[in-house]
Design goal:
single chain; alpha+beta; eight-stranded mixed sheet; four-stranded antiparallel sheet; 9 helices; 38% helix; binds ligand DP6
Length: 325
């Protein structure tokens, strides 16, 4: 009753930021992401009759509080479906700093969903794993699949919502150059930040109304393999989401001074003719999309920005996989 799964993080090109239903964890807008290599989580789940409670360890640190609660809730769903009455030991390792806006909840809950189902004796099923991962963290639904992945807006009561893969990792040989700005954990989780935005930002309704348009543009650009079209819509989605969040009370601000300096560097790259486009999520780091041939010049430019602590280059990544244990 043990299984190990690995899932890559995904970067949202058209963002989700706001829930239609907090109990069912349904997103209020459609989103589109690219699953990427380099940033991944490996999770082992073992149901064990020697345990008297679930034991959750992330990056060698025993978890209590909210992270543990979210994991236990997911395990409860699996126990329910599989008819298993045992507690589990969950051990998870990441290749990158967690809870800093690098989609660790996406890769983390996707790996957990895949491993927990199989450890409980259920057959691996990507649709059911994506649905299960989504109940824990919306973006995790997308990390069950590789390449370009969409997730619809949640219709009222749609407990079955899962992500949909649209193009595999080998569809488009893009690079995602990730500029890290420190490794501090964020002060406001995505869950809290987007809820505060929904409740208090005067711009939330406009954001929720506009987000599907960004999504449609990003999808059309991906279909045409048109990086300029994708990038323009991705940056628009990013700035609209962050502007909306920053207008919350109190403000939800994930950016640090180097974050803006990176956006400047990317604009300078474009002014010199390099097709490079930036995005960021609930944290100060910036992910820059470019063609494979521009990987070197983009990496060099981002390394030169004051406050950038590390630069790594990712490629389109594959789906979550089960590992031999
Ligand atoms: C900015 O999926 O982490 O990365 O559903 O509450 O767990 P919960 O939120 P989460 O939010 C991700 C927000 C984002 C944009 C995105 O990935 O679409």
């Amino acid at each position: 009753m043990k299984a190990t799964a690995r899932a890559f993080a995904n970067i949202a090109l058209a963002k989700y930021w706001g829930k239609a239903d907090s109990d069912l964890n349904l997103p209020a807008m459609p989103s589109l992401s690219l699953t990427v290599t380099e940033l991944f989580t490996t999770t082992t789940v073992a149901f064990d009759d020697g345990l008297s409670s679930d034991d959750v360890v992330v990056s060698d640190a025993a978890q209590s509080g909210r992270t543990r609660e979210r994991v236990v809730k997911l395990l409860d769903r699996v126990r329910n479906e599989a008819g298993v009455d045992l507690f589990a030991r969950v051990a998870s390792q990441n290749t990158f700093p967690v809870a800093s806006g690098l989609a660790s909840s996406a890769s983390g809950f996707a790996a957990l969903a895949v491993a927990a189902r199989v450890a409980a004796g259920l057959p691996h099923d990507a649709v059911l794993a994506s649905r299960l991962a989504r109940t824990a963290s919306v973006s995790a639904a997308r990390s069950v699949y590789g390449g370009f992945v969409t997730l619809d807006r949640g219709a009222p009561g749609d407990a079955d919502l899962a992500a949909t893969p649209v193009f595999d990792a080998d569809y488009w040989d893009l690079r995602v150059v990730v500029a890290l700005v420190g490794d501090a954990q964020k002060e406001t989780s995505s869950t809290d930040g987007m809820e505060r935005t929904r409740m208090t930002s005067p711009f939330y309704d406009a954001w929720a109304l506009t987000a599907p348009r960004f999504y449609g543009e990003v999808l059309a650009g991906v279909r045409a393999r048109d990086l300029e079209r994708v990038g323009t819509a991705m940056e628009a989605s990013t700035f609209a989401m962050h502007a909306c969040a920053m207008a919350s009370a109190p403000p939800v601000v994930y950016w640090k001074p180097p974050t803006l300096a990176i956006y400047d560097a990317v604009r300078a790259l474009r002014a010199r003719g390099t097709c490079a486009w930036a995005t960021s999520d609930a944290g100060p780091h910036v992910k820059v999309f470019c063609e494979a041939r521009d990987e070197g010049s983009v990496t060099q430019s981002l390394r030169a920005v004051d406050g950038v602590t590390r630069v790594l280059v990712a490629k389109p990544g594959g789906p979550a996989t089960l590992e031999a244990t």
